[in-house]
Amino acid sequence: MFVTELGWLKRVNIVKAVANGLDYMHHDCSPPIIHRDISIANILLDSDYEAHISDFGTSKLLKLDSSNWTAIAQTPMAISRQLAYTMVVTDKCDVYSFGIIALEVIMGKHPGELPTLSADYLVSSNVGDSRIPLPSPQVEKKVNLVEIAIVSCRDLNSEESPSKVDQ
């Protein structure tokens, strides 16, 4: 696929589709499903560039009335610090990983290539993919909303990170 085929609006729509999928898994399924390995490798695109979450082999049904201890099953770059420190699975583990995916989709490369994932750096830097033309002002607003979501998803304080990514 040529980089220019995956323009800004398609990238925003990919991020939105993943957010919608996670929202469904976390809030509309009973019991909620925690994927535990949300990574770019587990997001499939169909012929219309519609994103679909795949590989539920490590997913876990969330038991609402008990603790949800687990072994780490995520791609190393996408592991939330909350999961790494507590070994307790919550929907916020997937939300953190979603932030990493969103960053990778917008950047067009792996976030490991950034010097830091600090909020200050992400807000002050243009993390967009420089290989494609700048977005139109209307699309730029949508890209900026994705960048705001990225910062909120990677919040180190799990109480402040969102449990649901606003559409």
Automatic annotation (TrEMBL):
<keyword id="KW-0723">Serine/threonine-protein kinase</keyword>
<keyword id="KW-0547">Nucleotide-binding</keyword>
<dbReference type="Pfam" id="PF00069">
    <property type="entry name" value="Pkinase"/>
</dbReference>
<protein>
    <recommendedName>
        <fullName>non-specific serine/threonine protein kinase</fullName>
        <ecNumber>2.7.11.1</ecNumber>
    </recommendedName>
</protein>
<dbReference type="InterPro" id="IPR011009">
    <property type="entry name" value="Kinase-like_dom_sf"/>
</dbReference>
<dbReference type="GO" id="GO:0004674">
    <property type="term" value="F:protein serine/threonine kinase activity"/>
</dbReference>
<dbReference type="GO" id="GO:0005524">
    <property type="term" value="F:ATP binding"/>
</dbReference>
<dbReference type="InterPro" id="IPR008266">
    <property type="entry name" value="Tyr_kinase_AS"/>
</dbReference>
<feature type="domain" description="Protein kinase">
    <location>
        <begin position="1"/>
        <end position="167"/>
    </location>
</feature>
<dbReference type="InterPro" id="IPR000719">
    <property type="entry name" value="Prot_kinase_dom"/>
</dbReference>
<keyword id="KW-0418">Kinase</keyword>
<keyword id="KW-0067">ATP-binding</keyword>
<keyword id="KW-0808">Transferase</keyword>
<dbReference type="InterPro" id="IPR051420">
    <property type="entry name" value="Ser_Thr_Kinases_DiverseReg"/>
</dbReference>
